[in-house]
Amino acid sequence: MVYVVQSISLRRDKFTRAEAFKWIHDHGYKPIKDVHVCSHFYMYRLVDPERLAGARFRSVDLGSAGRMVLAYM
Protein backbone atom coordinates (compact mmCIF):
# COMPACT_ATOMS: atom_id res chain seq x y z
CA MET A 1 0.00 0.00 0.00
CA VAL A 2 1.36 3.40 -0.99
CA TYR A 3 0.72 6.40 1.22
CA VAL A 4 0.89 10.06 0.14
CA VAL A 5 0.97 12.92 2.62
CA GLN A 6 -1.97 15.06 1.51
CA SER A 7 -1.77 17.77 4.19
CA ILE A 8 -0.13 18.74 7.47
CA SER A 9 -1.73 20.79 10.24
CA LEU A 10 0.49 22.29 12.92
CA ARG A 11 -0.88 23.57 16.21
CA ARG A 12 -1.08 27.34 16.62
CA ASP A 13 -0.51 27.08 20.38
CA LYS A 14 2.88 25.38 19.73
CA PHE A 15 4.14 27.30 16.67
CA THR A 16 4.21 30.82 15.38
CA ARG A 17 3.38 31.15 11.69
CA ALA A 18 7.11 31.51 10.88
CA GLU A 19 8.02 28.47 13.02
CA ALA A 20 5.33 26.36 11.32
CA PHE A 21 6.61 27.38 7.89
CA LYS A 22 10.18 26.47 8.95
CA TRP A 23 9.02 23.08 10.34
CA ILE A 24 7.28 22.23 7.05
CA HIS A 25 10.35 23.08 4.97
CA ASP A 26 12.87 21.56 7.41
CA HIS A 27 10.99 18.24 7.10
CA GLY A 28 11.17 18.32 3.30
CA TYR A 29 7.55 19.17 2.50
CA LYS A 30 6.57 21.61 -0.25
CA PRO A 31 3.08 23.09 0.14
CA ILE A 32 1.10 23.70 -3.05
CA LYS A 33 -0.76 26.66 -1.52
CA ASP A 34 -0.06 29.27 1.09
CA VAL A 35 -0.91 28.34 4.66
CA HIS A 36 -4.56 28.28 5.67
CA VAL A 37 -4.93 29.66 9.19
CA CYS A 38 -7.84 28.38 11.25
CA SER A 39 -8.63 28.72 14.94
CA HIS A 40 -6.30 25.95 16.16
CA PHE A 41 -4.02 25.02 13.25
CA TYR A 42 -1.80 26.24 10.45
CA MET A 43 -2.88 23.97 7.59
CA TYR A 44 -0.59 23.18 4.66
CA ARG A 45 -1.93 21.33 1.60
CA LEU A 46 0.74 19.23 -0.11
CA VAL A 47 -1.36 17.43 -2.75
CA ASP A 48 -4.59 18.64 -4.35
CA PRO A 49 -7.36 16.24 -3.26
CA GLU A 50 -8.73 16.23 -6.83
CA ARG A 51 -5.58 14.31 -7.82
CA LEU A 52 -6.48 11.67 -5.23
CA ALA A 53 -9.86 10.59 -6.63
CA GLY A 54 -10.84 7.22 -5.19
CA ALA A 55 -8.28 7.39 -2.40
CA ARG A 56 -9.02 6.79 1.25
CA PHE A 57 -7.76 9.17 3.89
CA ARG A 58 -6.29 8.62 7.32
CA SER A 59 -5.32 11.15 9.97
CA VAL A 60 -2.04 10.54 11.82
CA ASP A 61 -1.19 12.24 15.09
CA LEU A 62 2.13 14.10 15.20
CA GLY A 63 2.06 14.39 18.99
CA SER A 64 2.14 17.92 20.34
CA ALA A 65 3.09 19.28 16.87
CA GLY A 66 -0.23 18.55 15.15
CA ARG A 67 -1.44 15.98 12.62
CA MET A 68 -1.10 14.89 9.01
CA VAL A 69 -3.57 13.45 6.56
CA LEU A 70 -2.41 10.47 4.50
CA ALA A 71 -4.10 9.31 1.30
CA TYR A 72 -3.91 5.69 0.18
CA MET A 73 -5.44 3.39 -2.41
Description:
With 73 residues, the protein is mainly β. The chain has one domain. It is 14% helix and 40% strand. The protein has one helix and five strands. It has a five-stranded antiparallel beta sheet with strand order 2-3-1-5-4. β4 and β5 form a beta hairpin. The longest helix has 10 residues. The protein is globular and about 35 Å long. The model has no long low-confidence stretch (mean pLDDT 95).
List the SSEs and their pairings.
Blueprint: E1 3-11, H1 17-26, E2 36-37, E3 41-45, E4 56-61, E5 66-72
Antiparallel strand pairs: 1-3, 1-5, 2-3, 4-5
Strand count, sense and barrel status of the largest sheet are: 5 strands, antiparallel
Average residue-wise pLDDT: 95
In terms of structural class, how would the helical and strand content be classed?
Answer: mainly beta
How many separate domains make up the residues? 1
Order of H and E elements: EHEEEE
Overall morphology:
globular
Low-confidence stretches are none
Strand line-up in the sheet with most strands:
2-3-1-5-4
The N- to C-terminal Cα distance equals: 7 Å
Write down the Rg. Answer: 12 Å
Q: Level of helix content?
A: 10-25%
Strand-residue fraction? 35-45%
- Number of helical segments with 4 or more residues: 1
Number of strands: 5
